[in-house]
Input
Amino acid sequence: MKRLLKLTIVFLVVMVVAIVAVTLYLLRDRSLSRLQQKGIIRIGYAVEAPYAFLKENGEVTGESPEVAKWIVARLGIRSINWWQSELGLLVSELESGHFEVIAAGMFITLKRSQHVSFSEPTFHVRQGMLVAKGNPRQIHSYQQAVKETDYKIAVIKDAVEEALLLRLGALEHQLVLVPDALPGRVAVESGIADGLALSSPAIQWMALHEQLGKTEMATPFEQSELALKERFGFGAFAFRKNDRQLLSAWNEVQKSFIGSAEHQKSVSEFGFSSVELPGAVTTEEVLSQP
Output
């Protein structure tokens, strides 16, 4: 009887161990392995040149997609399925499982980091302002624009510039929300807004492609102390919180590319220069700012 009891206990222990082992295996993070087996990765983006946009033939390009293409190829994933959305919806759609990565020149912010995990930075951009030719209102900083309560500044909805201007004290009636840079430029040309808050590469890209119209970049342009202190303007790719294997491998491949001659050549056509390189600043350091 005792022998039967011992055998029963041993059998139950073995069964419990087996069940735990199977459960752990099923729960194991295989976020990269699954994509390598399938041979395809889904990447979300929003149309916001020069970070991500469509060529005339429909091909997805821009700073972030081109870097993503280079990394994906070296991760052993054969192809990319691109998913276009609005900037403000990308994080929720990533969490919902519509795609595995966001490649949209997304700036690293503490608010977004509550929902996604960021790669290490791929760029660091300066603030800029698109103004009417001759800069009739003489705008040379975000701080100045905020203090002049009769100034109206166009901002792309949900972009980091909107958050920064509000942090600097902008009143809601001072901000003109636009879906992307082109309507923002039209707002400036028509007098609806005195300026369009954009990152400097975005304005440089517009200049390279003769899209400034009757506007120009405000120069000189002073960077805000708040942006410098809190390290605004660092961009990265975004991943689901649980996809640690994919994020780790992505960072490892990315590390050998960002800042290389090949990388700088590939993003130069989008208005990025060596000035926009992220340097040695890490995502952890960006998010640790007070």
In short: The domain at 31-124+233-287 is CATH 3.40.190.10 (D-Maltodextrin-Binding Protein; domain 2). The longest helix spans residues 2-27. The first strand starts at residue 40 and ends at 46. The chain has two domains: 31-124+233-287, 127-229.
